[in-house]
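Sorry to interrupt, but I need a hand with the structure work. Please put the record directly below this note.
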Amino acid sequence: ANPELAGIKAEAEAAKSGLARARAEAVPDISVGPYLETEPGMNGYEQTRDWGARISLDIPIFYRNQDGISAAVAEQKQKEADWSVAEANMAIRMRSLEERYSRSVERLGNVGKTLREGEGLIEDVKSRYLAGRVSAPVILEVVGNYREAVEEAHSLEAEAYEAFWNGCYLSGMKEAPRP
């Protein structure tokens, strides 16, 4: 999974645990323990007066930790909302990257066609130049146009790779096939 989403998801899970803890704190604690009461007796010895067990219950019994529960509920709702927003943003970013990749690949195909045609045109103009039918500026213009198409192809290829690998990162892929 995507590291950004994983972090937000972990925060949402922590908020859920915080709510469970706040609800558990609303249940009063019951304490049970022994007691022994003594009083001074004759000859310095203590005389046992009373012994038994004590049970105690924290008060208030009802509606305890309502502020803590309310805060935990609010935090959980906020974290769930953050998660939903992050997930929606991730989907939008992925769609944008997919569109960018598709456009780059499509344009790269068109430029590739232009390059193949340009190679043939360069050979044709070269043979015409050697035959003396065209001047040097013509061949320089054709070669310059071909160079611009090569640069555009490299730029489109880089754009396609960038979109592809950003998509891999956003989707959480650790390894991806070559595009």
Summary: The chain has a mean pLDDT of 86.
